[in-house]
Amino acid sequence: MAQQDNQIIQSRKTKLEAIREQGVNPYPNDFKPENTLAWIRENFDAIEEAEALAKVSVKVAGRLMLLRNFGKLTFAQMRDATGALQIAAARDEIGADLYRNLFRKIEVGDILGVTGHLFRTKKGELTIRVETFQLLTKAVRPLPEKFHGLEDREMRYRQRYVDLIVNPEVRALFQDRSTIIRLIRTYMEELGFLEVETPMMHPIPGGAVARPFITHHNALGTDLYLRIAPELYLKRLIVGGFDKVFEINRNFRNEGLSVRHNPEFTMMEFYQAYADYRDLMRLTENLLFHVAQQVKGAGQFEWNGQKLDFTPPWERLTLEESLVKYADADALQLTTEAGLEAFAKEREVYLDPKWDAGKKLLELFEALVEKQLIQPTFIIDYPVSVSPLARSSDDRPEITERFELFIGGWEIANAFSELNDPEDQAARFRAQVDAKDAGDLEAMHFDDDYICALEHGMPPTGGEGIGIDRLVMLLTDSTAIRDVLLFPQLKPRG
To answer: How far apart are CA 49 and CA 400, in angstroms?
Structure first.
């Protein structure tokens, strides 16, 4: 196959040289299209009269995806960013010399500029009759043999540009992704949130429990960390007087690759003063229901063979309640550490003896329940030990006012009423430092400046992060995160 590809590339290069020898620049930049192919279809697809079509003059540019030569007549499918349309070039209309010496040297993958008029073929297909044309880009490498696209999924990720050329549905998916982000941004702005940008390189990693990437700033002579979350900076803005802020941007976590994980991913984080986690649950329901309606046309839609229903309100369960409902746990058994260990042994779930009861409860949930949460479900009231930045409940100090949203068996969002007591926050940072010293690579550092910010006074606040990539997966019926990332991280070729 490689030898065959090399032969094709050499053949195309030979044609490229022949075109240059005729004094034709195969890579000009002086053709300006005036129409899109979608515009032509939208305005003239319903017109049948030959006379009316013949009066329509168009000037378009695009890539050739199919070529059919019939001696004196050549048909081709042209595709631009908006769609596809057939063109037809006749030797007698564009000139025998130009047709033979240049047009017949054009191949699938080349990019052309064309002017002409519309007509319908005998089969009724709307077509551009080429009057003049210009080669805009000569493609030296061939497209995949099968027009429907690349079959090797990894090659599709590695050569996304080819995937986008030959698979219109892939381009449509990423157009949907752009639409989803735009809808979220517009919704938040209409609620009065201010979009902001915070640093991507942090002197101290914080805002989430995760292992960071480390880099080095030569001029400052110090290590920096690619951010694992913008949380602590966004909350500094709440301290500074912005009551509603949000950011849509990249986070980086030095973790494994899987169908749900990429080390570089997109999140929206937002913070609202004088709000708690209950307010954020209502906001999240309404936001995602709105986005689903706009993208899917309804609040109910199919994903991975299952029907998802985004219609509010969504179910709310504590960790204990979810284990009772989905794992047949005994509620009383979950109230003691000995009971948790006995239940884990019964279900063959490993619990590290060094973990406290809160961590063990969370581990059981992740092992036994998480994948079963297909419909939108808020899991609420997490233990303090696994929620170092969340506010404790006034009624039950051992738990926090926190929720995680699960849809399709995936965590989609994480939110809580923010901890704004600087002494409590400092104590939790110290506990994280102890965990790090004991070998936990994901534990947080102590952030003195953030404590200083809290000491200036942060109003009661609710904050949340929503995973954009996983949300796009749900709304585009994708099952692997790499399908919704234009350029996902991949292992180097061996």
So the answer is: 70
The 10s digit of each residue's pLDDT in 175-198 is 999 999 999 999 999 999 999 999
Read off the pLDDT of residues 315-337 as tens digits, 9 standing for 90 and up.
999 999 999 999 999 999 999 99
- Strand ordering across the sheet containing 377-380: 194-195, 244-252, 264-273, 461-467, 410-417, 402-407, 377-380, 315-318
Q: What is the tens place of the pLDDT at every residue in 265-291?
A: 999 999 999 999 999 999 999 999 999
List of domains in the chain: 2-143 (2.40.50.140), 166-314+375-484 (3.30.930.10)
| pLDDT score of 147 | 40
What does the pLDDT look like over 336-347, one tens digit per residue?
Answer: 999 999 999 999
Give the residues across from 214 on adjacent strands. Answer: 225
pTM of the prediction? 0.92
